[in-house]
Specification:
Strand order of the largest sheet: 23-33-24-29-30-31
Radius of gyration: 23 Å
Number of helices: 3
Distance between the termini: 31 Å
CATH superfamily of the largest domain: Glycosyl hydrolase domain, family 43
Number of strands: 33
CATH topology of the largest domain: Tachylectin-2, Chain A
């Protein structure tokens, strides 16, 4: 293949930039995959080093399969793109989801799902590890270990025969973040057997329900399967039998949104392909190397519109998470030159009542510019808003409202059902236009306090530091920039947000 001359490359770059800029749905301050086909767009392998947060992102490069792109920043807001960290080569024809670990000597390791062939279901796609010691250049250069960490015997599954003749089919896909304990390294593998042997084939009880497999290594080269890291309990109704457990991320929770010392409670983030992002709170049994869930929650309810979580412990003790907000526009990458966006980073912590605290990171307020105190005056599609509503009263707030009032996204709360909803059914004709509803129980005298982010095609809602919903919306009207408050609102402020994306 003949390389393009430099002037043609520059012209192509300019044409792509202009195509991207013409898309009214492109967010201004949410983190986006820079260009190309971002599907599936998962954030992956976050780590902190040299004063910077690093975040990999899964994207599909046309004609070359899936890769790990690489972003970093010093402020959680303005991201710098590095050369792609992991690309297809003689060892992999594609790179899929995984997690990272920064060791004591500064070496960073990425465990990832290694794809070996175009027909994925017929290939023995297992787990591989890459590493970088390129501290001086912000981890630009990466090397893959020649041997597989987990050599799968079929697509994402390792079949082993025990000494007594028992045959076990172990998860061998979507490795978690690596952690270190007592001289050993540990990682979880996401549970593909549920989909392959239960969801797709009718399966057996042995492979039903969410769980993960734990692997251990002395040297990060040779890994041994230990046992299931946690088990689904069928008697509590938390998850369904056909839900898998992929994209796992396992970290201790701090006691406040500002971080500080970690608590003894651990958070297990994961997704099921059927229902999207969810989590467990529980105890890490260090003696037996297993996780004991004691509470469960979801971050996506009606579909998988909040997907593929990735979390990181910051030096100040905060636990920060990202997740993918799927586009769901037809041929979006070809039409608009980009695809793939992440929800605003969330700070997660253990509340005093033992539940999960959820709030947007404080750094986002640095982007606040012009302020409004009256909803009727707001005209913008890149906003941070705060609104408070009377206790025990229904509440509503419309955003992305068209001038004639017929097009809008409605945020509402029903105290009788203890339900917080985001309804995008009256906004545009593209994307998933379903109503998402999350549980939210307030005390008798507790007002509803909402923090709402609007960013072109994104509406994210945080409520009372313990619930959050994110949805995509694609208005038809170019002037759908208004805000409308319900009668029970008692306070309101809005700020126009500055741009962080390069274009």
């Amino acid at each position: 293949m003949t390389a393009k001359p430099i002037f043609q490359l520059l012209a192509d770059s300019r044409a792509l930039r202009e195509l991207i800029m013409r898309d009214r749905a492109r967010p201004a301050y949410h983190t986006v995959c820079p260009e190309d086909d971002g599907v599936p767009g998962d954030p992956n392998a976050a780590f902190y080093a040299n004063g910077r947060v690093h975040l990999m992102f899964l994207y599909h490069c046309e004609g070359d399969g899936f890769r790990f792109g690489h972003l970093s920043c010093a402020d959680l807001l303005h991201w710098h793109r590095h050369p792609d960290a992991l690309i297809p080569d003689a060892l992999d024809c594609g790179i899929f989801s995984g997690g990272a670990f920064a060791d004591d000597d500064g070496t960073v390791y990425i465990a990832y799902w290694s794809l070996k062939g175009e027909k994925l279901e017929t290939c023995n796609n297992g787990i591989r590890i890459a590493y970088s010691r390129d501290i001086a250049h912000d981890y630009t250069h990466w090397e893959k270990m020649p041997e597989e960490a987990v050599a799968a015997t079929e697509h994402g599954i390792l079949t082993v025969t025990e000494a007594d003749g028992t045959v076990r089919h172990l998860p061998a896909a979507d490795p978690s973040n690596i952690w270190k304990k007592d001289g050993f390294y540990y990682l979880q593998a996401g549970n593909l057997p549920v989909l392959n042997r239960y969801g797709r084939e009718g399966g057996t009880a042995e492979y039903s329900g969410d769980y993960t497999e734990l692997y251990r290594s002395r040297d990060l080269h040779t890994w041994e399967p230990l046992h299931r890291f946690y088990m689904r309990r069928a008697d509590n109704g938390w998850t369904a039998a056909d839900e898998d457990a992929m994209c796992p991320c396992f970290l201790p929770l701090p006691s406040s949104p500002e971080g500080g010392k970690a608590t003894d409670t651990y958070l297990q983030l994961f997704i099921s392909h059927n229902r999207g992002c969810q989590y467990y709170l529980g105890d890490y049994d260090r003696a037996n190397d297993c996780f004991l869930p004691r509470a469960h929650g979801r971050m996506s309810w009606v579909d998988n519109g909040y997907f593929a979580p990735e979390a990181l412990l910051m030096p100040d003790g905060r636990q920060i998470m990202w997740a993918w907000l799927p586009e769901r526009r037809e041929d979006e990458a070809k039409r608009f030159g980009w695809s793939g966006v992440y929800g605003v980073p969330r700070s997660l912590w253990l509340r005093e009542d033992g539940t999960l605290g959820i709030a947007p990171i404080a750094e986002l307020r640095r982007l606040c510019g012009r302020m409004w105190s009256e909803a009727s005056e707001v005209r913008s599609d890149r906003l941070l808003m705060e609104a408070e509503f009377a206790a025990r009263a229904p509440a509503s707030m419309d955003v992305l409202v068209s001038p004639d009032g017929t097009e809008f996204v409605r945020v509402s709360y029903d105290p009788a059902r203890a339900a917080l909803s985001v309804d995008v059914s009256q906004c545009g004709r593209e994307g998933s236009r379903r109503i998402e509803t999350a549980p939210l129980t307030l005390t008798e005298r507790e007002p509803l306090k909402l923090t709402v982010f609007v960013d072109a095609s994104i509406v994210e809602v945080f409520a009372n530091d313990r619930q959050a919903i994110g949805r995509r919306a694609f208005p038809c009207c170019a002037d759908a920039t208004g805000v409308r408050l319900g009668e029970t609102a008692t306070a309101f402020r809005a700020w126009e947000m500055d741009y962080t994306n390069p274009y």
